[in-house]
Amino acid sequence: MQFTSLPTSWNIDQILDDLNTSGFALVDNVYPHEYVRDLVQECSSNLEAFRAAGIQNGVVSHIRSDHILWIDDQLPIAQQHINTLENLAQAFNQAFYLGIKEVEAHFACYNAGEFYALHRDNPQQKNDRMISTVFYLHESWQEDWGGQLRLQDKNDQWHIIPPVSNRLVIFQSDLLHEVLLSKQQRLSITAWLRSSNSIWNG
């Protein structure tokens, strides 16, 4: 299955309006069920290659406990999601002049008891992450399993976003957010739309 453009079911005008108004947007039922199924399979079959995200250069961070696997050409099904985000980045560049040039992404696995405490993906514009996205992979999720994304929008309002299957969350990388403690294995793709010479001005 190849994605060469944004899915026709997406309301891109609504996405742009939500980003401009509150700094985040949600898209549900992003892909056909068959693609999500194959993506879950690709993720699950590579779980042994995941590494602890909280360990960087031998230093342990205590604000997160999830495990990740960076996505490259060896993960062709996930690469199709990256292609979709690259097309989305073109729309963002046209609307907000962000100058996004690339997408980086990894699979993320939150096992039972794992979390990611409050943080920003681009604190004080210290890196080139402009837009953050999270796509939820698991085929079902119950409310009492936790794992929600808690996000403060650009108007300082807080939102709790359940990790619903086949949902894409899009938000400014400088917004404060966290992943609440998960009680079941929670699978997703986290991706950043990056620019080396722009700052958000939406």
Automatic annotation (TrEMBL):
The UniProt record lists the keyword Oxidoreductase: yes
UniProt superkingdom: Bacteria
Cofactors named for this entry: L-ascorbate
A Pfam match: 2OG-FeII_Oxy_3
PROSITE patterns: FE2OG_OXY
SMART domains referenced in this protein's UniProt entry, alphabetically: P4Hc (SM00702)
GO molecular function: ferrous iron binding; L-ascorbic acid binding; peptidyl-proline dioxygenase activity
Stored InterPro entries: HIF_prolyl_hydroxylases, Oxoglu/Fe-dep_dioxygenase_dom, Pro_4_hyd_alph, Pro_4_hyd_alph_FE2OG_OXY
Domain Fe2OG dioxygenase residues, every copy: 101-195
SUPFAM superfamilies assigned: Clavaminate synthase-like
A Gene Ontology biological process term: cellular response to hypoxia
Keyword line: Dioxygenase, Iron, Metal-binding, Oxidoreductase, Vitamin C
Protein name listed in UniProt: 2OG-Fe(II) oxygenase
Native source organism of the sequence: Acinetobacter halotolerans
Source species taxonomy: Bacteria, Pseudomonadati, Pseudomonadota, Gammaproteobacteria, Moraxellales
